[in-house]
Give the backbone structure.
Amino acid sequence: MPLFKGRSSLLEVQNRALIKTAKERAQRIDELERKLQIAASQIGQLQRELQTARGRTGKLERDLQTAQERTGTGERDLQQGTNDVERLTFERDFYSKKASVLEEENRQLTESATKYSLQAQKLERELTEVATRYSQWGQKLERELAEIDPAGAPGRRFDA
């Protein structure tokens, strides 16, 4: 019986180690999924801001065209039109730069989200492989125990 007690103790230690590893992997996957959700949320917000900036840029370009058409109506209108053109040009440049920054951030967030997704998939595959190996190992040990002591095998089943 000391042989079985030692093997049983070994199996219990290995089972606890497997459970601990599986929990740690699951926690890491959860953490990566949370980061992925945050990144996806940020991407959505940046896309909305980009769309707003594009709409504003289009309106500003139309306003700029309107201001340029008004410049031919006289000296006062010319000065006002010039001021409008400058203001609209600055605004257009500002929103154009902001749109470029948002597009770059969107690209970076997309790359980051892809990276975290791939990493989560890799960790999930590794966890599955480790769990499968330990399960197969446990089944092998059960078969060996059943061969050694067939009468006591049902009472020693791990899932019992």
